[in-house]
Amino acid sequence: MTKEHLTACEAAFKAATNSYQEADENDRVKETDELNKAAYRLKLAKNAYAKHSIIPIPNPIKIIAGFPGVGKSHYCQHTTGCYDTDSNSFHKYRFPANYLRHIVGNVQKNRYGIIFVSTHAEVLEGMTECGLEFTVVYPCMDIREEYFERYRQRNSPPALIEKISDNWNDWITALQASSYKKCRLTSGQFLADVMEEL
């Protein structure tokens, strides 16, 4: 963790604070969410800068950030020694802080050789700030319909399918453009097909 990163987080928090104070009632909910995220990122940055590495990893643990539908749950059901954290079970008001604490706790307990996590942007940022190494697994942009068929077959909630539909292009584009270590799945591929390469 560098001083430059800490300074950037402080500036982002200051900007979020100003935006919140200047927002009208219609935008207040959104700005509150952004302010909470900025505050949490700043807290992580301060801890990391003070301790240099706030997450000790006793043994190599493989952390995989998997896009919805790549096959995280299916892999865990057929493999021992892995754990799917399932971000949907965490209260959204405290997200991602509560989810990141859960991830960190499982890493520190060292119970599993593989931990699957979500690809939410704030989760990936938080893990990076915690000093955790991970690989992002996500689909090609052009196999959208294949993934929505997977969601329907596994009976995903309509609200979740709609949310992914609305954000598919933006989310895939952001993952493609990111500097994270990543693996892109093509048509017909699942997580199980590439695990040995990760």
Textual characterization of the structure:
This protein has 198 residues and is α/β, with parallel strands linked by helices. It is built from 7 helices and 5 strands. It has 2 domains: 3-51; 62-197, Rossmann fold (3-Layer(aba) Sandwich), CATH 3.40.50. Helices cover 52% and strands 11% of the residues. The chain has a 5-stranded parallel sheet with strand order 2-3-1-4-5. Helix 1 packs antiparallel against helix 2 and helix 2 (28-51) runs parallel beside helix 5.
Number of domains: 2
Share of residues in strands: 5-15%
Alpha plus pi helix count: 7
CATH class wording of the largest domain: Alpha Beta
- The CATH topology of the largest domain is given as Rossmann fold
Poorly predicted runs: 51-55
Order of helical and strand elements:
HHEHEHEHEHHE
What's the mean pLDDT score? 84
How large, in whole angstroms, is the Cα Rg?
18 Å
SS content category: alpha/beta
What's a concise summary of this model?
Helix 1 runs antiparallel to helix 2 and helix 2 (28-51) runs parallel beside helix 5 (121-129). The protein is of the alpha/beta class.
